[in-house]
């Protein structure tokens, strides 16, 4: 079988398909360097970047009516659509939400990336805790980066305004209709037409998304349970370590070794806590994000079905009119146009989505594996460091009974 | 992973000393000298291997356990486990061992042996037996005495018990112990014939009874305190460890759920399929690795348990001292009171309350003859009392000396054994971390390689 299926093989024996070998020995560095190389390969596809967006610097704002967080959005671009080469604005979650709805409206044939969940149950999650804000920031950054990478969405006017406007509220209030031609067109597609046959490829996408979301949901539940079990394990560990300290206080020669073991267990506990935090902050959000993504993609597919249904219905209506070689009316042509554009856009977006999904999950799974490796390395170091302490020989004590008197 | 058992090579004199039929204060000077000699020869290492004045070395093993059914004392059917004890003598020259004795014993017989040793060697910290019933279990282990894992660990514990005795400079020479290893039939009767149950001080069994001792040896008071604390801390440690094991098991087993879902997911993917399949497989391997890990940890727990029970043995020696001191003080008190009575009678002053004094007041003075008679009786009693006090004092001092010698030996053994136990625990953790870290690395690399295809 493949040389890497036997886990005892040293990593330096692995040969990559392109002939390279991973650097270093079996240390965590080797897997991340391998990851980096693969990502580099993915990026090299001819596209030159002319737009860079970063979300950072969360700040809390306390007003009389409410308290909320804003994030700084920094944009750097050479595109003509931007008046200045660089922008820096502050936005809050509802601004992102506004952007997303506008994108859905104006670009209905495209897949719009998901936002992190809007509502959080108060009391369960602290909306202003560092961890929550950081998790959200990462998700919002991801959201904008995905739009930035999209050849159509990145040129959207609403997106431009979001990145550049000093005061977004003015634009929101004005409710400027900046719908594209397609957006306008799809907006008026009426539902109620029944689809005859869904083209195979779109049916396949639908089925895939159903199963995909289901599996991710299961993985999310398992991950949550693991975290719960790990926390309970941590609670016991935090009680276990100190008992060795208590024992150490009773002893003479054994005092140092026992104290060493106590400290060691303490270190392992801390390492575990870090691992569990990482899982909560990095792993779970991405799973949730892709589940939300799947949901929104399913809606887009439904819309596509509607467009096709309308077209087919209108076409049929024309065919039923007993005319000799009827000329296809303009509005039916428009429907066909609409449908074909939709299909093309959707197909292109699906392919893009699949690529990104592969990269994202690779990073996610490898990242988690890496974190686990780091956890074991930390524990390993802790235990290895006390071995010399445990083996230390103390001064031989003379037995008291040498004295017979 | 083996328990930290003492060196299995032992020396045993084929015709050992008779056990004590006399006082329970210890073997006296003889023992002390031999103990000292053994210690001198064994300094820097185990006492076991260097007792050169014995003729041959022996090896003891409890090699098998078997389920048996039989009828008990009340003629009722019962199931029990019997253990095979094999003794081998090792030829000095070529190291070859020859099976010399082999017999079956059940747990209750081991208990009988120990109870006998406790009575005849009250100044010795007698090695403990493995637990009668499984305690400190975490959920997976059965608390059932018939469970094969429990029986196996008990077998090891019983072997360790015998090895501890065989390596003890004094206990190894006991005849009853020798017969335990060599005489299958009638051994129980032989033990009972020593009459040790009669010699046993029932007060020692009353663990919680306190005796108001005015001048105990401070070292023993401190030591009793230490043994109580040690018992308490090791119990706590074992309880928490069991909970930790339980939780850790849970963490690993939930990871096992990943296997199936990753496999199902891989079925709908094109490029990611192989990588996900490999991830699922590795999750299964990870989940199943917990069983070995926890089994190894049980051995560590057993090592701690032995010292938990040793703490009790330590405490018993302290209690014995307390009792002896108590008896001594009572005897001294008694003697003092009799002396005073005598003095009062002689001088005619009544300071102490006595029934005779009361009746004298009520019914009139006694005659000089009567008084003389009473004084004589008291003088005899005082004489006897002084002799007794003298011997009790001597006994007490001997006991303290001999007991403390064994306690020092025990302390060294304890420190050695527990250090070893901690080291092997650390080594276990290290090996586990390396194994699991390696596992993650392998599946990481495998996943990435699949991605690169």
UniProtKB/TrEMBL annotation, chain A:
List compositional bias (Low complexity) regions by residue number. 23-33
What's the domain of life for this entry?
A: Eukaryota
Q: Which GO terms describe its cellular component?
A: early endosome membrane; phagophore assembly site
The protein's topology relative to the membrane is: Peripheral membrane protein
Q: Where would you find this protein in the cell? A: Early endosome membrane
Give the matching PANTHER family.
Answer: SORTING NEXIN-30 (PTHR45949:SF1), SORTING NEXIN-4 (PTHR45949)
The annotated subunit structure for this chain is: Heterodimer; heterodimerizes with SNX4.
**UniProt protein name:** Sorting nexin-30
Its taxonomic path starts at: Eukaryota, Metazoa, Chordata, Craniata, Vertebrata
From TrEMBL, chain B:
Query: What organism is recorded for this protein?
Result: Callithrix jacchus
Show the PANTHER family listed in the entry. Answer: SORTING NEXIN-4 (PTHR46596)
Tell me the subunit arrangement: Heterodimer; heterodimerizes with SNX7 or SNX30. Interacts with WWC1/KIBRA. Identified in a complex with WWC1/KIBRA and dynein components DYNLL1 and DYNC1I2. Interacts with BIN1.
Chain positions covered by the region annotation Disordered: 1-50
Q: Which Pfam families match?
A: PX
State what protein this is by name: Sorting nexin-4
Membrane topology term reads: Peripheral membrane protein
GO process annotations (BP): positive regulation of autophagosome assembly; protein transport
Q: What does this protein do?
A: Involved in the regulation of endocytosis and in several stages of intracellular trafficking. Plays a role in recycling endocytosed transferrin receptor and prevent its degradation. Involved in autophagosome assembly by regulating trafficking and recycling of phospholipid scramblase ATG9A.
The domain of life is Eukaryota
List the subcellular locations.
Answer: Early endosome membrane
């Amino acid at each position: 079988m493949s040389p890497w299926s036997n886990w005892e093989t040293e990593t330096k024996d692995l040969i990559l398909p392109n002939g390279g070998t991973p650097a270093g020995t079996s240390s965590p560095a080797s897997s991340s360097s391998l990851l980096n190389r693969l990502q580099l390969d993915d990026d090299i596809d001819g596209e030159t970047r002319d737009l860079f967006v970063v979300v950072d610097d969360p700040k809390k704002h306390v007003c009389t009516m409410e308290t909320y967080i804003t994030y700084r959005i920094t944009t750097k671009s050479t595109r003509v659509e931007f008046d200045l080469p660089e922008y820096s604005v502050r936005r809050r979650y509802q601004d992102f939400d506004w952007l997303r709805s506008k994108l859905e409206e104006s670009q209905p044939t495209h897949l719009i990336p998901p936002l992190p969940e809007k509502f959080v149950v108060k009391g369960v999650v602290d909306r202003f805790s560092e961890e929550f804000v950081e998790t959200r920031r990462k998700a919002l950054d991801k959201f904008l980066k995905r739009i930035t990478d999209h050849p159509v969405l990145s040129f959207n006017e609403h997106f431009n305004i979001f990145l550049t406007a000093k005061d977004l509220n003015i634009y929101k209030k004005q409710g400027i209709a900046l719908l594209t031609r397609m957006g306008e067109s799809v907006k008026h597609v009426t539902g109620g037409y029944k689809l005859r046959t869904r083209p195979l490829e779109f049916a396949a996408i639908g089925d895939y998304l159903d199963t995909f979301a289901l599996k991710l949901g299961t993985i999310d539940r398992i991950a949550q349970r693991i975290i719960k079990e790990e926390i309970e394990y941590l609670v016991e560990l935090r009680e276990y370590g100190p008992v060795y300290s208590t024992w150490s206080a009773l002893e003479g020669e054994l005092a140092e070794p026992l104290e060493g073991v106590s400290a060691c267990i303490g270190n392992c506990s801390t390492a575990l806590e870090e691992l569990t935090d990482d899982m909560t902050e990095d792993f779970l959000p991405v799973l949730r994000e892709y589940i939300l993504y799947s949901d929104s993609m399913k809606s887009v597919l439904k819309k596509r079905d509607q467009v096709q249904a309308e077209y087919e219905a209108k076409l049929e209506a024309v065919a039923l009119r007993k005319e000799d070689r009827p000329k296809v009316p303009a509005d039916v042509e428009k429907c066909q146009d609409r449908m074909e554009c939709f299909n093309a856009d959707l197909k292109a977006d699906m392919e893009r989505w699949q690529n990104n999904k592969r990269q994202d999950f690779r990073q996610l799974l490898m990242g988690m594996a890496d974190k686990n490796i780091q956890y074991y390395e930390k524990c390993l170091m802790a235990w290895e460091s006390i071995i010399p302490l445990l083996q230390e020989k103390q001064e031989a004590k003379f037995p008291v009974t040498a004295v017979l008197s | 992973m083996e328990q930290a058992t003492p060196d299995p090579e032992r020396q045993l004199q084929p015709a050992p000393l008779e056990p004590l039929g006399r006082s329970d204060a210890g073997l006296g000077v003889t023992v002390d000298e031999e103990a000292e000699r053994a210690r001198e020869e064994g300094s820097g290492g185990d006492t076991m291997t260097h007792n050169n004045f014995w003729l041959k070395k022996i090896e003891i093993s409890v090699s098998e356990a078997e389920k048996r059914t039989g009828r008990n004392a009340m003629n009722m059917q019962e199931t029990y486990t019997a253990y095979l004890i094999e003794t081998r003598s090792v030829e000095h020259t070529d190291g070859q061992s020859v099976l010399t004795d082999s017999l079956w014993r059940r747990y209750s017989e081991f208990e009988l042996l120990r109870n006998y040793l406790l009575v005849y060697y009250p100044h010795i910290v007698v090695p403990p037996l493995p637990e009668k019933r499984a305690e400190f279990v975490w959920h997976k282990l059965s608390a059932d005495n018939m469970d094969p894992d429990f029986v196996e660990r008990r077998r090891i514990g019983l072997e360790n018990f015998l090895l501890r005795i065989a390596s003890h400079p004094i206990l190894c020479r006991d005849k009853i112990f020798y017969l335990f290893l060599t005489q299958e039939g009638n051994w129980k009767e032989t033990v009972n014939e020593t009459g040790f149950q009669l010699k046993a001080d029932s007060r020692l069994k009353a663990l919680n009874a306190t005796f108001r001792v005015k001048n105990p040896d401070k070292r023993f008071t401190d030591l009793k305190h230490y043994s109580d604390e040690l018992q308490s801390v090791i119990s706590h440690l074992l309880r928490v460890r069991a909970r930790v094991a339980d939780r850790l098991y849970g963490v690993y087993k939930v990871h096992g759920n990943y296997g199936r879902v990753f496999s199902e997911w891989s079925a709908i993917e094109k490029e990611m399929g192989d990588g996900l399949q490999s991830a699922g497989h590795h999750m299964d391997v990870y989940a199943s690795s917990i069983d070995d890990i926890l089994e190894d940890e049980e051995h560590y727990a057993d090592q701690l348990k032995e010292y938990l029970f040793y703490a009790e043995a330590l405490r018993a020696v302290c209690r014995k001292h307390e009792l002896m001191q108590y008896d001594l003080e009572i005897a001294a008190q008694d003697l003092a009171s009799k002396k005073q009575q005598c003095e009062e009678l002689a001088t005619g002053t009544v300071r102490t309350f006595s029934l005779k004094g009361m009746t004298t007041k009520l019914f009139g003075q006694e005659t000089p003859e009567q008084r003389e008679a009473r004084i004589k009786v008291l003088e005899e009693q005082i004489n006897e009392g002084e002799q007794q006090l003298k011997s009790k004092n001597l006994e007490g001092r001997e006991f303290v000396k001999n007991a403390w010698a064994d306690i020092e030996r025990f302390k060294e053994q304890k420190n050695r054994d527990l250090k070893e136990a901690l080291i092997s625990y650390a080594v276990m953790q290290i090996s586990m971390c390396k194994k699991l870290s390696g596992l993650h690395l392998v599946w990481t690399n495998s996943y990435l390689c699949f991605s690169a295809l």
